[in-house]
Hints:
The chain has two domains: 44-153, Roll (Chitinase A, domain 3); 159-218, EF-hand (Recoverin, domain 1, Orthogonal Bundle), CATH 1.10.238.10. The radius of gyration is 18 Å and the shape is globular. Strands 1, 2, 3, 4, 5 and 6 form a six-stranded antiparallel β-sheet that branches. Strands 7-8 form a two-stranded antiparallel sheet. Helix 4 (177-191) crosses helix 5. The protein has helices at residues 19-23, 104-109, 160-167, 177-191, 197-211, 221-224; strands spanning 46-51, 65-74, 80-83, 93-96, 118-123, 145-155, 174-175, 219-220. The chain is an alpha+beta fold. One of its GO terms (molecular function) is peptidyl-prolyl cis-trans isomerase activity. Residues 155-190, 199-232 form the EF-hand domain. It catalyses: [protein]-peptidylproline (omega=180) = [protein]-peptidylproline (omega=0).
Amino acid sequence: SSGTVPRRRPPPSDMGRGLTLLLLPLALLAAPAQAEGGRAAEEEVKIEVLHLPEACSPKSKKGDLLNAHYDGFLASDGSKFYCSRTQNEGHPKWFVLGVGQVIKGLDIAMMNMCPGEKRKVIIPPSLAYGQQGYAQGKIPPNATLIFEIELYAVNKGPRSVEAFNQIDKDSDKKLSELEISQYLKEEFARDGKKRHPSVHDEILADIFKKNDHDGDGFISAKEYNVYQHDEL
């Protein structure tokens, strides 16, 4: 077990909310920590549109909340390493586009996509798991990946500045463990579901593990920010 907390598909009323949705990447497809640079210019995501519905609106953009199914294959031998339909009781995945909740190649591959559209995309190693690979996900080093994607819904995603300011009670432009802990308690109380206290602690620890990149015990505006052009 990787220690991540299983997530249920949120009801519609929760779509525009949710620090947990913003800050908890999908376990398998979360962007790995790796050095920037060194990517050859010719390495890019190749996109083949398999199905395009007549009504194509709205098109996905950075920051949107997407609902999709996807299968992942190794280009080297065609073997399947991931199938979202076998996860979370078969529910499609919810994630925010363009913010690193999935690997860089998927963030690129799913831009300007409309509900009902299907795509086959080829992602080079530099936009996936690079030289390190991802042993837990059965992805070897320097692996080119192929994904078949079906997009179901495009929703307006949570805005980072609004959510950040809501959590940042003392307005010091950084989120403390206490502030995020309090926010989680409020969110849990709002949906009324009974949870073991350990769930709160696990989510809190996971948020800091994945987002406190400099390890100073706070999540800064830069570490949190969904939109690069937003100013906090």
